[in-house]
Amino acid sequence: MPLVRTTFRAMASDNELQLFAATEARARAVAAAAIADVARIEAKYSRYRDDSDTARINRAAGRAAVAIDAETAALLAYADRCFTLSGGLFDLTSGALRRVWNFRRAPPRVPDARALEAARALIGWTEVEWDERTIRLPRAGMEIDFGGIGKEYAADRVATIVTEQGIAHGLVNLGGDVRVIGPQPDGTPWRIGIRHPRKEGAAAAAVTLDSGAVATSGDYERYFEIDGRRYCHILNPRTGMPAAHWQSVSVIAPLCIVAGSCSTIAMLREQEGETFLREQGLPYVAVAPDGSVRGPALEPAR
Amino acid sequence: MAATERRRKPPRRGSLLAAALALPGIVPAAVHAQSVHDRGWIELKYLDYRDWQSGANRMGVKSPSFYTLIPVSDTVEVEGSVVYDAMSGASPLYFNTLSGASGLGVTDYRTAGEAKVTKYFGGWAIGVSGVASSERDYLSRGGAVDLRIFSDDRNRTYAFGFAGANDRINPTNGAASNAPRNTVEFLVGITQALSATAIVNSNVTYSYGHGYFNDPYKLLDKRPGDRSIIAWLTRYNQYFAEPDGTLRLSYRLLHDSFGSTSNTVTAAWVQTLPAGFSVTPQLRYYTQGAASFFYGPPLGTGFVFGQPFTMDTRLSAFGAFTVGVDVAKALSDGWSVDMRFDYYRQESNWRPGGGTPDLLPFSARWILVGVTKAF
Q1: For chain B, what is the domain count?
Q2: CATH topology of domain A3-42+149-294
Q3: CA–CA separation, A184 and A176 (whole Å)
Q4: Which residues pair with B52 in a beta bridge?
Q5: CB of A37 within 8 Å of any CB in chain B?
Q6: CB A188 within 8 A of CB B340
Q7: pLDDT of residue B304
Q8: What is the C-alpha separation between B112 and A181, in angstroms, rounded?
Q9: What DSSP string runs through A132-199?
Q10: Is the CB of A298 inside 8 Å of chain B's CB atoms?
Q11: What's the distance, Cα to Cα, between the start and end of chain B in Å?
């Protein structure tokens, strides 16, 4: 059974799809269908496209309600649950903070208190009026952002499409968020490296999966350092400040969307992150502030 | 399954026939008394429950309980019970990929009480009861009416029951606020004395619940808002004079609109021994199919985001054995003591045809000690 590996770029990430199929042509056809759906989700939820659902909803902030379909409603419902279970730390409206935290600026600068306060005033998931058919952001300047779950949801969709097309062994990796479709054809599980938060190209640990997903949130994707302190892009909507405890948290879950949101919530919960993951019953690998690696899913990196 | 077994009520005592009443081991399984009991009694019990996975303790429950039955006149008796559960620990683990286990997750307390009045008439009896149960995040109130009709020769009892419960769920994390769940249950049953030494009982219950069934503490747990369950339970008790013991057999078939069907077979032997002792070894086999919206490994097939979904391993497919033994001793002046030990183990491959793959085995044990005083 040939393994066909396809790499592609979408959602501002380098992605890959590995599929075992009866023929190479079959694998390529299924990969094309899966990649088309990733592109569909990107077009629908990207903040950067004027015609996306996200852009339509954000443009109407402070004005009228915007019609949404069942898929968007399901994502909102999931985000709502994340909000509740994270005590408000996972907030789809926290995008306003991105406008005051610029990780590309040189020299870097921590936003002043007044700018943070102004941004925080535009955050508030509980104020958003939404149901299964419409959503309305109550104040001008508010925005929602599916960035915290869109890529992971796309990985789950790939798994669904690929499985429906009869493929039982494969793996999709969307920018480091991995969803596995069955074990490898000989029954051995996939071995997935967890990126080292401080050494580019090195693995800090590995996990083995024959189903489900692993997703990682870390302080190394976008960040700057001032006076030895690291400020990363995972922002706490209550304080306006970056998450400041774990170097990275990788979570294993049956769905990539669950793995991704739980790893983000664990980062934001800081010292309480492990407690949260235990409550959810999910295995994880966490890289502690001192660089030590811990967690119930841990296997040594080879 | 373990979670429901843990909360099963202590067996209620009663009798069917005068002949059967006198037989050791028949009595506790039959809940079909045909007249007010001659004596009342008080039971104090203490249950210690613990479960574990991969050698690591998960959940523990310490549960003292009190039960009394008091005949207040020739035709009326009352029953009352109170139980207090102190639970601590973590919910079951999901994957087989664990190389270690995690610590505590849950601490909770439950207090529950039940009161019942039964009035006997010539050929029938009616019972009315109320029950309430309270946890930090859960309040349940219910009531029930049961009617029993006795045949002229008293060898047969027909039972009809109706129960309703109103629950309110208030998760501590605010995932739901005062979420309601209402349940109604109907029972139809028949108990027949086949001889002076054998009784068969069969009943069918149907329950329908509407409301909140989700696990509010899990990120992805969405269950249907309606649940109906139909269960058929048949019990057969046969006394054997020669070894002076009673064989108890039971079978239950249950179908749940969540998509799961379960089968339970139980066999027990009640052996009377000298000096007021009795020993009851018991073996039970239980197997259930997975709920239609349970997703364990392998995942992915046909799942549509937003549709019902759970990873709750209690809704997975598995088989389980329970082995237990009860030792009781009757003392003078109406006192008796008993001690019971049960060991439960659940594995996915103990289900015929295989259960949910890659789930960790789950084990539990119960220790129950009790003191009873008849008056």
Answers
A1: 1
A2: T-fold (3.10.520)
A3: 19
A4: B57, B363
A5: no
A6: no
A7: 61
A8: 46
A9: SSEEE-SSTT----GGGTHHHHHHHHHHHHHHHTT--EEEEEETTEEEEESS-TTSPPEEEEEEPSSS
A10: yes
A11: 36
The CA distance from B347 to B322, in Å, is 12
The phi and psi torsions of A119 (rounded to 5 degrees) equal -65, -45
The whole-angstrom separation of Cα B341 and Cα B228 is 33
pTM: 0.79
Closest residue in A to B175 (Cα–Cα): A84
Do the chains contact at B295 and A298, CB–CB below 8 Å? no
A255 versus B27: the higher-pLDDT residue is A255
How close B229 gets to chain A, by Cα (Å)?
28
3-state secondary structure of A63: coil
- CATH classification at residue B244: 2.40.160
Q: Which two tokens stand for residue B151?
A: 């045949």
CA of A153: how far to CAs of A159, A213, B304, in Å?
10, 11, 11
Mutate to test the interface with A, among B96, B97, B356 (most CBs of A within 10 A): B97
What tokens appear for A30 in the block?
């299924």
Tokens, residue A31: 């990969």
Q: DSSP assignment, residue A235?
A: B
Tell me which chain A residue has its CA closest to the CA of residue B91: A281
Residues B338-353 as b/e (b if ≥16 CB within 10 A, e otherwise) read bebebebbbbbebbee
Burial label, A7 (beta-carbon count in 10 A; 0-12, 13-18, 19+) = exposed
A229 at interface of B, judged by CB pairs closer than 8 A = no
pLDDT digits (tens, 9 = 90+) for A7-57: 999 998 999 999 999 999 999 999 999 999 999 999 999 988 999 999 999
Decide if B42 is inside a domain: no
Distance CA A126, CA A130 (A): 10
Q: Give the domain ranges of chain A.
A: 3-42+149-294, 62-144
A211 CA: distance to closest CA in chain B (Å): 5
Q: Is residue B325 in a domain?
A: yes
In a domain, B73, yes or no: no
Give Dmax over CA atoms of chain B in angstroms: 65
Domain contains B212: yes
Nearest by CB to B297, from A87, A159, A211: name it. Answer: A211
- Name, in order, each residue with C-beta under 8 angstroms of B17's C-beta and a sequence gap of 6 or more: B34, B154, B155, B193, B196, B199
Indicate the DSSP class of residue A203.
Answer: E
Give B324's strand partners.
B282, B342
- Domain spanning A62-144: which CATH class is it, in words? mainly alpha
Strands B198-211 and B124-135 turn out to be: unpaired
Helix (H, G, I), strand (E, B) or coil at A219: coil
Q: For the segment B202-253, what is each residue's pLDDT rounded down to a tens digit?
A: 999 999 999 999 888 787 788 999 999 999 999 999 999 999 999 999 999 9
Structural domain of residue B296, as residue ranges?
A: 2-34+124-374
